[in-house]
Design goal:
Layout: H1 2-19, H2 27-35, E1 57-61, E2 72-74, E3 77-82, E4 84-91, E5 94-101, E6 120-125, H3 140-148, E7 165-166, E8 177-181, E9 186-188, E10 221-223, E11 230-232, H4 238-241, H5 255-259, H6 261-272, E12 278-282, E13 287-289, E14 309-311, E15 318-321, H7 356-374
Helix pairs in contact: 1-7
This protein binds 2-acetamido-2-deoxy-beta-D-glucopyranose (3 copies).
Length: about 375
């Protein structure tokens, strides 16, 4: 059984590549995705707004230790303005998405560092067909550097197919920003400056002794002390059901979060929205979706490639899946290979053990592919 399973595991990605390499995102798909963001502007999804005049939405929290810079009120009662506008445009026959956000969250955040409004303004091709790009590490060490390094998500590692442009502030630390969540909050990769998993670290030859001490809140985010930028690192439990989360507390002060962060963050998706959910967009132009499929079944982490992505066998679009095993959201800019070895910088990796469920998924995929090849 084990042998057969392994064979399938290798052949499926190859078949997927052969059958669905060339398609890319559609205008309708871009509009649909843009509208799934929690936009505050009137322009979405058609036209970008002037940064200084676009419509904002107020967020009020009565449990802040310190109010965000430029907000109104006196702690604990603060009101700040969110700005978010996600738009699509066509240029030279190519489809682009632009995300303009001031980065401020739509929920409370604990801590004594003040949140700061920033100009986040990025543009990239929407769902570009990955023609020239394929991440394939030849050994464990190469895989480790590819997905464990703190700066693995930097712009220099983006595929040129994405045509990524940063029109926003260049000074904010977006080196490990992998994308932007549906509420306009930046998402970082799951790596610490130590080049290990931030949450379940394991030292390896490429790790160092840098201090990784940052207070993670109950939304599994944190405020970057140097620039006041709020960001998520993990499948964010507060994206759609913040009202069910003690958003003004640190993770350590919430029993479920402290005990098992991974189950805690997934539980909110299991309990309230176990269907296809947009988590955000990655900087390379591909969608990041939640841990469930449109058919309410959970993605098996074994079905994801080394970058944490999966190729939709029918449409050919490549999508990242936010799961609760390392590398959590976007491990590298994919598509990537399927390998038999795991990265060594995390204690929380997807296990390669076989399960009936997993085999069923693989057989299902194979059946779909065979049908494809006959018609
Ligand atoms: C904050 O608001 C609450 C009502 O929501 C009020 O009772 C309290 O006095 C306010 N505190 C400050 C410092 O304004
Ligand atoms: C967390 O718990 C500690 C100890 O009980 C307390 O001092 C602190 O104020 C709490 N902070 C937050 C933000 O939850
Ligand atoms: C993938 O792309 C197709 C068009 O090629 C679109 O209809 C579909 O909704 C996309 N799938 C997802 C999951 O976005």
């Amino acid at each position: 059984m084990q042998r057969i399973k392994k064979k399938l595991f290798f052949s499926i990605p190859i078949l997927l590549i052969l059958f669905s390499w060339s398609k890319g995102g559609t205008v309708f798909g871009c509009y649909e995705t843009a509208l799934a963001f929690k936009n505050t502007c009137n322009g979405a999804p058609y036209y970008a707004e002037d940064w200084n005049t676009f419509v904002t939405r107020d967020v009020t929290c009565n449990q802040m230790q310190i109010c965000p810079v430029g907000s109104t009120g006196t702690a604990p009662n603060c009101t700040w303005k969110r700005k978010l506008c996600v738009t699509c445009s066509q240029q030279d026959g190519q489809l682009f998405m632009r995300i303009q956000s001031n980065g401020l969250p739509d929920h409370c955040v604990p801590g004594k560092v003040a949140l700061q409004e920033r100009v986040i303004d990025v543009k990239f091709r929407f769902d570009p067909p990955p023609v020239t790009f394929f991440q394939k590490p030849s050994n464990v060490d190469a895989l480790n550097h590819m997905i464990c390094d703190f700066d693995s998500s930097s712009e220099s590692n983006l595929p040129s197919d994405s045509m990524f442009r940063n029109y926003g502030e260049k000074t904010i630390s977006i080196i490990n920003m992998v994308g932007i969540a549906a509420n306009g909050v930046p998402m970082y990769n799951g790596n610490s400056p130590r080049n290990t998993d931030y949450f379940y670290p394991k030292d390896w030859a490429g790790s160092n002794q840098k201090n990784v001490d940052q207070d993670i809140d109950a939304c599994l985010g944190a405020i970057q002390p140097e620039d006041g930028v709020y960001h998520y690192w993990f499948l964010p439990p507060c994206l759609y059901h913040a009202d069910k989360i003690q958003t003004s507390k640190y993770c350590d002060n919430v029993t479920d979060c402290f005990t098992d962060m991974a189950s805690y963050s997934k539980k909110i998706y299991t309990d309230f929205s176990n269907t296809w959910t947009l988590i955000g967009m990655a900087k390379d132009g591909h969608k990041i979706i939640g841990p469930y499929t449109a058919g309410n079944s959970e993605f098996d982490c074994q079905a994801l490639d080394i970058c944490n992505g999966i190729r939709d066998s029918s449409s050919g679009n490549y999508t990242y899946v936010a799961v609760t095993t390392f590398p959590y959201v976007v491990g590298c800019y994919g598509p990537g290979a399927y390998v038999t070895f795991n990265s060594v910088c995390s204690k929380n990796v997807c296990s390669f053990g076989s399960s009936l469920f997993n085999n069923l998924i693989l057989f299902g995929l194979l059946a779909i592919l065979m049908l494809h090849s006959f018609y």
